[in-house]
Design brief:
By secondary structure, the chain is mostly helical. The chain has a domain of about 230 residues: Photosynthetic Reaction Center, subunit C, domain 2. About 35% of the residues lie in helices and about 0% in strands. It is globular, with a radius of gyration of 24 Å.
Length: about 375
């Protein structure tokens, strides 16, 4: 028989469990649309304070004036394949920054063999070279997503050898008791889908493959042709799981990109951020397929995922809980080598201009967004 004390303890424990998933006030609300449309962003000031400390950009090293006639790094050092057009001073400055961004504990030897920096036998050096090329592609070819802010190695690494937020294809899951057959890729709670019963791999279809994330059906029960099973409940669950990732990765709710009056509509009904996100998912897909997957065999087995795939990027890789990576700190402009290859000055000391890619040659121009958009 329960005593009064035991009953009180039981009730207190039950109440604690019920409110464990709630956030204590005060909660900040920022209105982003017309009153009554629920176009609001809801923030927890305590969470924002923590995020601010985690998204602080490091100090920028003093720039090196590129003096005409000075030798290029590629002429002084051996086997410089990406940064060879830099002056020797700017080359050293850039390499020093990369070391602090990626391997502050190990230093140069994380990628190089001491006494023989030209050697390519350390796998991390081969990977770093590919990542430099990827960074140049982002900054020069994906301004539709990163604008003039750009990215650096620090955007993803934050002083870690391996970025905190990466993803692998999950290992095959077994259904309860092994008697339920194919689990259809869901019903195994995973962080990627908010520990819900939604699909536990919301990344492969969209951040590696190019499956349509838009699930609005154009006809009832479409089960043939190109529309077959693309507007089903199952596909909607994949889309919703991915949207949960977006929300968590950027620290925002649905109305950051969508208008509550018509979630699926573009044009005047969508926020500007939605177009930015549209380009972002395509950027991540290209980076994974053109820069990460091709170097899978470069990595040792212990750096690969449970199915043998390479680490890949998603929204959280750069954003890490902030609506803009590092809350918009523009680090890249201080390191011209992280754009397209720079050119030595001809007559007067100057920093080479950053080339602006023609967005129409990379992705559709804004205003002509395809119907398969997010």
């Amino acid at each position: 028989m329960m005593t009064r004390t035991m009953i009180k303890l039981f009730l207190a424990s039950t109440a604690a469990l019920l409110i464990a998933g709630c956030e204590r006030p005060p909660i900040a609300v920022s209105q982003t649309g017309f009153r009554g449309t629920a176009m609001q962003q809801v923030y927890n000031p305590r969470t924002l304070a923590t995020q601010a400390s985690l998204n602080k950009a490091p100090a920028v090293a003093d720039a090196i004036v590129d003096v005409p006639g000075t030798p290029r790094a590629g002429a002084i050092y051996q086997n410089v394949q990406v940064l060879g057009d830099l002056s020797v001073g700017e080359f050293a400055r850039t390499m020093s920054a990369i070391t602090e961004w990626v391997a502050p504990q190990q230093g140069c030897n994380y990628c190089h063999i001491a006494g023989n920096f030209a050697d390519d036998s350390v796998y991390t050096k081969v990977v770093a070279r590919k990542m430099l090329q990827m960074t140049q592609k982002i900054n020069s070819g994906w301004k539709t997503h990163v604008a003039e802010t750009g990215v650096t190695c620090y955007t993803c690494h934050r002083g870690n050898n391996i970025p905190k937020e990466i993803w692998f294809a999950p290992a095959p899951q077994k259904s309860a008791g092994g008697n339920l057959g194919n689990d259809a890729g869901q019903n195994h709670p995973a962080k990627a889908s908010g520990l819900s019963s939604l699909p536990y791999d919301p990344f492969t279809p969209y951040f590696l493959d190019s499956k349509p994330i838009r699930v609005n059906g154009k006809e009832a029960l479409a089960m043939t042709g190109t529309a077959a099973n693309r507007s089903s409940i199952k596909q909607t669950e994949f889309t919703y799981a991915t949207m949960m990732h977006w929300s968590t990765a950027l620290g925002v709710n649905c109305t950051y990109c969508h208008n509550t009056q018509a979630f699926a509509a573009w044009g005047a009904n969508a926020t500007p951020q939605r177009a930015t996100a549209w380009y972002g998912i395509r950027m991540a897909r290209e980076l994974n397929n053109e820069y990460m997957v091709p170097i899978t065999n470069v990595f040792p087995a212990y750096r690969l995922g449970p199915t043998g795939d390479v680490a890949k990027a998603n929204c959280a890789t750069c954003h890490q809980g902030a609506y803009k990576p590092l809350y918009g700190a523009a680090m890249a402009k201080h390191y011209p080598a992280l754009y397209a290859p720079v050119k030595a000055p001809d007559a007067v000391p100057a920093v080479a201009a950053v080339p602006v890619a023609d967005a129409a040659t990379v992705v559709p121009a804004a205003g002509r967004v395809e119907v398969s958009a997010k």
